[in-house]
Amino acid sequence: MKNIFNQLHTEEILNRIDKLSPNSKPQWGKMDVAQMLAHCSSFQDIAMGNSYPPRGWLGIIVGRFAKQIMYNDKTLPHNMSTIPTILIEDDRDFETEKEKLKQKIIIFQNNGPEKCTTHPHPFFGKLTSEQWGKGIYKHLDHHLKQFGV
C-alpha cells in the first residue's frame, strides 16, 4: 500500500495536483476543485497536529473497527461522509488552496513519521504514524480521482 512518507508516492501526488485546473470538474460529490484542495489541506492539518477536531460518538463506537477500510488497497467509496470541521462549503481561491496543500504535503513528508500527530483521528481514533502516512495517501488519491487526475 502506498504511503505519503515514501518520496516517490509524494512526488506522484504532487504531480497529480499540478494536473488540476480551476476548471476541473468532480466526477462525484458537491465540492468544487478549490474546496476539495482546502478540504485536503484541512485534513493535513489534523495529521500534522495543527488541528484537533473532537471525536464524534459514531467514531468512538465504531471507528476502531472501521479502520480496515482505510488501510488496504481498495479504493474508498464515493460520497463518504467526512469530518464535519473539514467540510468546505464556502468559496476558495484555486491557486491559493493548491499551493497551501502542496506545501503542507511537502512539510509533512519532510518531517517524517516521527513528527506525525499522536492525537487521535476524529473518527478512527489512535493511529500509528504508518497508518497516518497510508491514510493521507489514500485520502489524497481518493480526491484526486474525484477530479480525474
Features:
149 residues, mainly alpha, 5 helices, 49% helix, globular
Share in helix: 40-55%
| Backbone structural class | mainly alpha
Query: Uncertain runs with pLDDT below 50, 5 residues or more?
Result: none
Rg (C-alpha, Å): 14 Å
- Report the count of strand segments: 0
C-alpha end-to-end distance: 19 Å
| Mean pLDDT rating | 92
Shape: globular
Q: Order of helices and strands, N to C? A: HHHHH
Proportion of residues in β-strands: under 5%
**Largest sheet geometry:** none
Instruction: Give me the number of helical elements.
Output: 5
- The overall number of domains is 1
InterPro entries: DinB/YfiT-like, DUF1569
Pfam families: DUF1569
Organism: Siminovitchia fordii
Protein name: DUF1569 domain-containing protein
